[in-house]
């Protein structure tokens, strides 16, 4: 049988081709993206590739085009790869059975569940909240929503009842899909119980569908609650996909801002599909027969774009992992890589840093010879972590792609292409074709010199940019399009080397004013992290009677003796003074065993700011932390600032 080659036409295989593609994408973006979009299945071709006005702001791609993304992720593969594994599912407990589902089976399962949604009154445009563990059924629920044209809003299954309720209410979800419980390491998260608590405050939810996962006993609300297995049992395995407009919303995903409620970023059907597939194929250079594993949770954008939509649209085999990297031991990631002969491994620097602290024997006892490509996402990767990852996991033969992007961007904006374009440790390197990245100074003037450091901005639309914040377009405008006129403002700082490689230096919106000087905390942390004994640091401001604010640094080190730390304190202050200026020297340095982090690996600066300010009693909600215990440890070792 002739193989489906269409999607392979979009793959860049040499540096020269990258340059050519990039040039074309800037000179004639519409022709460039039309050429890529032609590789997908459409019910009707678009009338217009792009129209936009960022003063509104408004961006439309492939207007007039009609499609359903699930036909591109499932139906189009049936002929050629119906029997190929679409998803490998690795359970939390390594002794439990692995599940594998082919494209044909996944298609059927999604159709069945789409019928369940329809029978429960869900149709085009309805919002459906999904609060589930990392099970194949989570992917099925997501795709079934897309198939009926409903807008899914996945909420990470580690969030509290209050966080869940806030998100459900913000987008007025009509249905919730959840499970009785979820396993994570030695824990069993009572999802249904948490959902019940949330739903006491969510009048918009009419029906709840519950997947039986752990088998634990749960409360039941008759009329409202329905078992997944009973609903799907007699559902038809056929479902004609709803034909969607290119610009119809596909999903909402919440992300936190520096202030206020979480922002419900809205992504639309066509542009998101085109861009995530294009970047998946090019960044990872996935080939038929490869096994791709992204360790993110589907509750985050990385899971949406690079576990589900990008890989499935590309016809890949994607692995979903139910568990955590430290269970049953800190070698679990490597065990899973060896067990499934993973070729592509994509994780976050925070995971790498946590694992590199453990004996390397935990890596070496597993056969990682199948690995071809390593990826990093979510935060700047420090040199030590990059080197350890490349050496011990990649055995110095796997390219490492450091992919910079955001919930708002939908897909990867800056990254090397594995083994095709050059990599450079700690640099995300070059923008993807279609991404017109620039650096701006504080006045919003473009920094045109070869090497520069400033605020990152994107000056032209790409297909998967979030179109709005659900229910708050003004906020969307204010946060992303007001800092610099006619530019998308991601809120990150970056520097550029003489070859045009970008290194992301961190958020620019955590600014502290010390003695009247504006100081971003990210560059100070970068300076501290340069010290060879420093693992990680977080710098925050606290009120100071003379300076207005002063800086407090929390530092994790490789050493832990008091004597060594005393010396280190002086060295760190000297280093910051040298790198940035004496004004940026932290007033206080506290050596800590860890930092409070959200489950997506972001440092919870709000807590650190309060502790530094001496307000240790009222720390607010710490339930969403990955490591809540660390807070008390930090408080007990606090340096007196009063
Ligand atoms: O600060 C950047 C950082 O994560 C932010 C986006 O977070 P989120 O929307 O949760 O999405 C994370 C997964 C895409 C960015 O503004 N970030 C993400 N990737 C990188 C990064 N910082 C440096 N290097 C990266 N590769």
TrEMBL record:
One of its GO terms (biological process) is acetyl-CoA biosynthetic process from acetate. GO terms for molecular function: acetate-CoA ligase activity; AMP binding; ATP binding. Residues 75-461 form the AMP-dependent synthetase/ligase domain. Keywords: Acetylation, ATP-binding, Ligase, Nucleotide-binding. The keyword DNA-binding does not apply. It holds the Pfam family ACAS_N. Its EC number is 6.2.1.1. Residues 524-602 form the AMP-binding enzyme C-terminal domain. CDD domains: ACS. Residues 18-73 form the Acetyl-coenzyme A synthetase N-terminal domain. PROSITE patterns: AMP_BINDING. It comes from the Bacteria. Belongs to the ATP-dependent AMP-binding enzyme family. NCBIfam families: Ac_CoA_lig_AcsA (TIGR02188), PRK00174.1 (NF001208). This is Acetate--CoA ligase. It comes from Leptobacterium flavescens.
């Amino acid at each position: 049988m002739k193989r489906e080659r269409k999607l392979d036409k979009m793959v860049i295989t040499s540096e020269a081709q990258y340059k050519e593609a990039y040039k074309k994408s800037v000179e004639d973006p519409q022709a460039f993206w039309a050429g890529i979009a032609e590789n997908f299945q459409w019910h009707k071709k678009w009338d217009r590739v792009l129209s936009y006005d960022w003063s509104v702001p408004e961006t439309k791609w492939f207007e007039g085009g009609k499609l359903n993304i699930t036909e591109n992720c499932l139906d189009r593969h049936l002929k050629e790869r119906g029997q190929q594994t679409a998803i490998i599912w690795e359970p939390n407990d390594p002794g439990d059975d692995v599940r594998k589902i082919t494209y044909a089976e996944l298609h059927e399962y999604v159709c069945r569940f789409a019928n369940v949604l329809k029978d429960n009154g869900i149709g085009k445009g309805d919002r459906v909240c999904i609060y589930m563990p990392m099970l194949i059924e989570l992917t099925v629920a997501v795709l079934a929503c897309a198939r009926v044209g409903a807008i899914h809003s996945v909420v990470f299954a580690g969030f509290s009842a209050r966080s869940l309720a806030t998100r459900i209410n913000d987008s007025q979800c009509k249905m919730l899909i959840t499970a009785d419980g979820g396993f994570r390491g030695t824990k069993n998260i009572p999802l249904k119980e948490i959902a019940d608590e949330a739903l006491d405050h969510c009048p918009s939810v009419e029906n709840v569908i519950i997947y039986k996962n752990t088998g634990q006993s749960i409360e039941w609300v008759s009329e409202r609650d329905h078992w997944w297995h009973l609903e799907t049992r007699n559902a038809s395995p056929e479902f004609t996909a709803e034909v969607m407009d290119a610009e119809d919303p596909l999903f909402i995903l919440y992300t936190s801002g520096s202030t206020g409620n979480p922002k419900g970023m809205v992504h639309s059907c066509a542009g998101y599909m085109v861009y995530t597939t294009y970047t998946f194929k090019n960044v990872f250079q996935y080939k038929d027969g490869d096994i791709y594993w992204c360790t993110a949770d589907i509750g985050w954008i990385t899971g949406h774009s690079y576990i589900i939509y990008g890989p499935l649209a590309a016809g890949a085999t994607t692995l979903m992992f139910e568990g955590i990297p430290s269970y049953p031991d800190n070698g679990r990631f490597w065990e899973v890589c060896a067990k499934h002969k993973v070729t592509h491994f994509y994780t976050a620097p925070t995971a790498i840093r946590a694992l590199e602290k453990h004996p390397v024997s935990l890596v070496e006892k597993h056969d990682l010879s199948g690995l071809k490509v390593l990826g990093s996402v979510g935060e700047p990767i420090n040199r030590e972590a990059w080197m350890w990852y490349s050496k011990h996991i990649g055995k110095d033969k796997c390219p490492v792609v450091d992919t910079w992007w955001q919930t708002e961007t939908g897909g990867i904006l800056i990254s090397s292409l594995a083994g095709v374009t050059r990599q450079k440790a700690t640099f995300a390197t070059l923008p993807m074709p279609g991404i017109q990245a620039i650096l701006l100074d504080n006045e919003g003037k473009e920094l045109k010199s070869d090497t520069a450091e400033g605020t990152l901005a994107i000056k032209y639309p790409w297909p998967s940019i979030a179109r709005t914040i659900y229910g708050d377009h003004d906020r969307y405008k204010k946060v992303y399009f007001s800092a610099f006129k006619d530019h998308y403002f991601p809120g990150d700082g970056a520097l550029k080397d003489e070859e045009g490689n970008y290194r992301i230096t961190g958020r620019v919106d955590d600014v502290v004013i010390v003695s009247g000087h504006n100081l971003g905390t990210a560059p100070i942390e970068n300076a501290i992290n340069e010290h060879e004994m420093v693992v990680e640091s977080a710098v925050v401001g606290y009120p100071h009677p003379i300076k207005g604010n002063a800086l407090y640094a929390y530092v994790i080190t490789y050493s832990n003796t008091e004597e060594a730390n005393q010396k280190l304190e002086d060295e760190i202050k000297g280093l910051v003074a040298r790198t940035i200026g004496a004004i940026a020297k932290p007033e206080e340095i506290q050596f800590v065993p860890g930092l409070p982090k959200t489950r997506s690996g972001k440092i919870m600066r709000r807590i650190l700011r309060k502790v530094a300010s001496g307000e240790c009693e009222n720390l607010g909600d710490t339930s969403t932390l990955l490591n809540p215990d660390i807070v008390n440890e930090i408080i007990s070792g606090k340096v007196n600032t009063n």
